[in-house]
Amino acid sequence: MSFWLIGILAGNFLPWAGLVFLILLLAFGVLVAIKLKTKSYPFDLYLSVFLCLGFVLVACLSVPRQKIEGEDSQQRFVATLLEYPTEKPNSYQALIHINWADSASFHNQKILAYFEKSDSIATWQPGDQLAAVSNLQRIQTQGDPFAFDYQRFMANRQVYFSIYLASRNYHFISTQNHLSIWFRAERFRAALIRVLRQHIKNEESLQVISALTLGYRKELSPETRSYFASTGAMHVLAVSGLHVGMIYLFLTILLGFLKRSSAGRIGFFLTIGSLLWFYALLTGFSPSVQRATLMFSFILFGNSLKRPAAIYNSIAASAFFLLLINPRLLTEVGFQLSYAAVISIVFFFPRLKKWIQPKNKLLDKMWQLFCVSVAAQIGTFALTIFYFNQFPTYFWLSNFLVFPAAYLILAGTFLLLILSPVGWLAVPIAKLLAGVTFSTTFLLQKIALLPYSLVENISLTSVELFLLISMGATFIFFIKFKNKGLLFGTSVLLLGFLLFGLSQKLSLLNQKKYIIYAREQSIHLINGRKNYLICPEVNQALPASINHAVRELKLDSPTIIYLDSCKQFASNDLIIDKQFILFLDQTFQYNETKNHPKTQHNEMIESDKSQPEGFDPASETKIDSVMRKGTILNLANLRPQQTIIADL
């Protein structure tokens, strides 16, 4: 398993790794051939290395190479809808699969489509086909070097192009006669959500129930996502091992009588295994569900053979098979968090549980729940900080609430779906389910409002993440094997982590940079932690990406200067005078244009009575170009989302 992981990591991040492993494999192949006749020392060593290198090479070559064969162009195509369209403010969004296009390079590609709003789009279902003509455009990242790389995120899902389809440019063709099991599962899930919608009237409660039980999170509001994330309860909304484990426990209790005979054990294995995989299919096959379902399948198989479950072997086997089928899963955040959490729980939970052993059953259950929460956070906190730049401090408190609530909501939802044809039974169940969900969300909102509930803007580099994970692994092995060398290794890695962090801080204290945000036409000047944001107008929105720069570069809050209301500015490192900016002995010159929209003059005066002195509401300031050291950068030629960053 470890060599397979090495191969996948190398294939993902080192383009030349395959060639290196091939050369090493051939070299050790020659050494094995030389020693083959005598089989004398070190033949066994050469053979072992040769086999390991072969395993690593196969894993490295199994990683799909990112291919973007098509170019931005207008295409006629026939496509199949892969999911229900999701309503956006100005359009409907859905993934489509191109069956045929003018250019063969687009055949069988997945495309992110945005449809002009119309009544007919809302009735489309997965499996429906359409014919269209429009411009296919390559998905672009926002251009901010510190922001989320959306282009890479979509490329990892093998989606490279997007398209906007006006109503006149596409039309419905037909529904496929023979739907795949995937499309049937999507339609069945939609039918179940329609049943829930008939009984659950509170929209937020419906969104939470749909996400928690059926994995449908597309309609979750940003506010709901926010307080679930800020309290450390987001894992409940993402169908995961918790949900699969609850279903597995319920089914083993319900069907336990089948294990009394050998034929019954086979039926027990097939029935529960089939139901678990059907639930995984129904909820969209997220990485965490795949992991949990495959792991429980191994446990089920072992139990049917009357062999004790080896939990670590089950975890490793599930990861190996999933990565064998889809090596790209290793770069999925959900996959990483899922395995980090389950390994940490399996290792730390029994050890934490021993610290306190309450005699009261209720206190004992609460202590166990606390231990599970802490064990999961030990394994995932580094990844959480690296990917989300925040850490919820009250995760343990929210888990006291969401774990029991999740069990009640999961059980209540399935009971409601089963009994929905019987109205007089479904109504009280629906009310109870809605009440539990509403109470849970209400209490989570209150937890999110507690002081210091969320530590934000934490940055962690990839090197620091590697050192933290390595330190955690060596410390786990030290606890397991009580080897002083492992403790020494943990100490060395900790020292390396601290020294690297110190060197990063020293370099950031001496940084001298400028950033130009093309969309907002703003200039960000940085001197150590001190920084200035120069904007054309006082009423314009600040660049959204400035928060990323402040977080990653460890900056103080920026001093914001508006050129239309502040024609002169002077400090020890910055001077602004008319069209010149002198920053750290380097000169920036900007061109400025002014418009005089008479129609807006009175409106602006009436709408904003608190403009700073010197602001002329009849004028509009705009930075057209910036010149540094004789090099002119025309902002009009930049992509709107492009950000330029350079050292001074």
UniProtKB/TrEMBL annotation:
It comes from the Bacteria. Keywords: Cell membrane, Membrane, Transmembrane, Transmembrane helix. It holds the Pfam family Competence. It is a multi-pass membrane protein. GO terms for cellular component: plasma membrane. It is found in: Cell membrane. Residues 595-619 are annotated as: Disordered. InterPro entries: ComEC_N, Competence_DNA_uptake, DUF4131. Residues 600-611 have a biased composition (Basic and acidic residues). Residues 212-479 form the ComEC/Rec2-related protein domain. Residues 14-168 form the DUF4131 domain. The chain crosses the membrane at residues 13-33, 45-64, 227-251, 263-282, 310-327, 333-349, 369-388, 394-420, 432-452, 458-479, 486-503. PANTHER family: DNA INTERNALIZATION/COMPETENCE PROTEIN COMEC/REC2 (PTHR30619), RECOMBINATION PROTEIN 2 (PTHR30619:SF1). This is ComEC/Rec2-related protein domain-containing protein.
